[in-house]
Write a structure and sequence with these properties.
This protein is an alpha/beta fold. The chain folds into three domains: 121 residues, Probable tRNA modification gtpase trme, domain 1 (Gyrase A, domain 2), CATH 3.30.1360; 119 residues, Up-down Bundle (Four Helix Bundle (Hemerythrin (Met), subunit A)), CATH 1.20.120.430; 160 residues, P-loop containing nucleotide triphosphate hydrolases (Rossmann fold, 3-Layer(aba) Sandwich). Helices cover 44% and strands 17% of the residues. The strands form two sheets. A seven-stranded mixed sheet has the order 3-4-5-6-2-1-7. Strands 9-10-8-11-12-13 form a six-stranded mixed sheet, sandwiched between helices. Helix 4 runs antiparallel to helix 5. It is flat and about 85 Å long. The mean pLDDT is 91. The protein binds guanosine-5'-triphosphate and magnesium ion. Magnesium ion binds next to helix 8.
Length: 459
């Protein structure tokens, strides 16, 4: 384990900025601070959690590298739980690199990705789910996703896992008492079903249900725009994003590839995908483009089927409406700024399932506010979440919770089927192990390395 040495990294993004922050953590942090920092006031008290003004100097003491503010956080009350030095210098990559070089001369090792968080985890400052929450908060694409990450960092998930552990430990104690009793006194006593088991299953189920809701805020909604050529798909993408992202012409078959961009609707990140118009392909390129559309339609959270309201419907329109297997369809009748060529009720019987129908003009932006609201509402309709509630956003957590739930349900069935209590105890212990994987109480080093190596450097 590389926890003995002192590590350093630039904690702010690479590039030019007013201020850049360099972090140092480890046993030598304080000693290094006294070498590299010359306080402006001779009698610097070097108190922990105080900010001091002065110069950053080279290791040989001959050159001033920058004027900076420096803080020193004494262990264990620091992010990593070790002695930590933070240098707030000027945000020029050349200056920061020069300081970093001197820190290495003074005995620091350059930190790898996530090493500060890894140390915080090993020193019990945060558990694994909190470390992961921190990473997802940094990468969050919406305000709500930030709020969810922050709630997890503050321990909302940790607390719920603790509650679940308590329930399972209590249930296990009851079951194990039966095992002892069976051995000592009367063979064949069937244990009662501890009420904690059903309660734990219920809480696990609601935690798992939060995944879908939270995922909408963290990963966003995938919206694929489809339709035959020339109906205005690319125009819709451009108007929704406010950019000239896709080429728009009146030549059918203009778009060949998938064109994507992200917008934010009421705090939800929405990934829009413009696609090639669906028709009998005219060449190999168009054929590939159309193949891509069908593949993407199946995985979309919302499919917008665009129809041209100003021209009669064709077989292509009908085929697109009927062949679409996605459950969340929104039909947008475009070009409603022009005189209509058909009535809405014409398409009523053409859909395999219900879909909302909306009149828009991609070119003039008419009806697009409603379209945006429908996109988000159709994904959020079944969900109401409060970022303060315990919720999961991480696939690893979801999988561990699913395994724990299976263990608990098996434990419950074992009791109901009158099986020996040892089986139930075994399943409950497995459930506990699965919960402990989330917080990192019990986890193998390989998984840990994988998790922390996906973090950014300096965090
Ligand atoms: N009047 C009117 N014209 C529109 C509207 N939306 C798009 N158009 C026009 O329709 C033509 C085709 O628009 P595109 O956005 O390129 O259509 P597309 O569906 O992406 O076409 P392909 O890429 O060929 O599949 C262009 O001339 C647009 O200016 C609209 O709301 N009203
Ligand atoms: Mg197009």
């Amino acid at each position: 384990m590389l926890l003995q040495d002192t590590i350093t990294a630039i904690a702010t993004p690479f590039g030019t900025a007013g201020v850049g922050i360099i972090r140092v953590s480890g046993t030598k942090a304080f000693e290094i601070a006294r070498c590299i920092f010359q306080p402006a006031h001779a009698n610097c008290p070097w108190e922990t959690h105080h900010l001091y003004h002065g110069d950053i100097i080279s290791a040989d003491g001959k050159t001033i590298l920058d004027e900076a503010l420096v803080s020193f956080m004494k262990q264990p009350h620091s992010f990593t739980g070790e002695d930590v030095l933070e240098i707030n210098c000027h945000g020029n990559p050349l200056i920061m690199k020069a300081i970093l070089t001197e820190l290495v001369v003074l005995g620091c090792r350059l930190a790898g990705p996530g090493e500060f968080s890894e140390r915080a985890f090993f020193n019990n400052r945060i558990d694994l789910s909190q470390a992961e929450a921190l990473a997802s908060m940094i990468a969050a694409k919406s305000a709500k996703a930030c709020a969810i990450g922050l709630a997890q960092l503050k321990g909302s998930l940790t607390k719920e896992i603790d509650n679940l552990r308590t329930l399972l430990i209590d249930a296990l104690a009851m079951i194990e008492a039966t095992i002892d009793f069976t051995d000592d006194v009367a063979e064949g006593v069937i244990p009662q079903l501890p009420p904690q088991i059903a309660l734990a299953a219920q809480r696990l189920q609601s935690l798992l249900a939060s995944y879908r809701a939270a995922k909408i805020y963290t990963e966003g909604i995938n919206v694929v725009i489809t339709g035959k050529p020339n109906v205005g798909k690319s125009s819709l993408l451009n108007t929704l994003t406010g950019k000239k992202k896709a080429i728009v012409t009146d030549i059918p078959g203009t778009t060949r590839d998938l064109i994507t961009d992200m917008i934010n609707i009421r705090g939800v990140p929405v990934n829009l995908v413009d696609t090639a118009g669906i028709r009998e392909p005219k060449d190999a390129i168009e054929k590939e483009g159309i193949k891509l559309v069908w593949e993407n339609l199946a995985n979309a959270d919302v499919v917008i089927i665009l129809l041209d309201g100003s021209k009669p419907l064709t077989v292509e329109d009908k085929e697109i409406l009927q062949k679409n297997k996605n459950g969340n369809i929104l039909i947008a009748i475009n070009k409603t700024d022009l005189p209509p060529a058909w009535e809405t009720r014409t398409i009523a019987g053409l859909l395999p399932q219900e879909g909302k129908i909306l009149n828009i003009s991609a070119k003039f932006g008419t009806g697009l506010e409603e379209l945006k609201n429908i996109i988000v509402d159709s994904c959020l309709s079944v969900i109401s979440i409060d970022a303060g509630d315990a919720m999961i956003t991480n696939m690893r957590h979801k999988m561990a919770l699913e395994k724990a739930l299976t263990n608990i349900l098996t434990a419950k069935n074992n009791i109901l089927n009158g099986m020996s209590p040892e089986f139930t105890a075994f399943d409950l212990r497995e459930a506990l192990d699965n919960l402990d994987e989330i917080t990192g109480r019990k986890i193998n080093d390989e998984i840990l390395d994988k998790i922390f190596s996906s973090f950014c450097i300096g965090k």
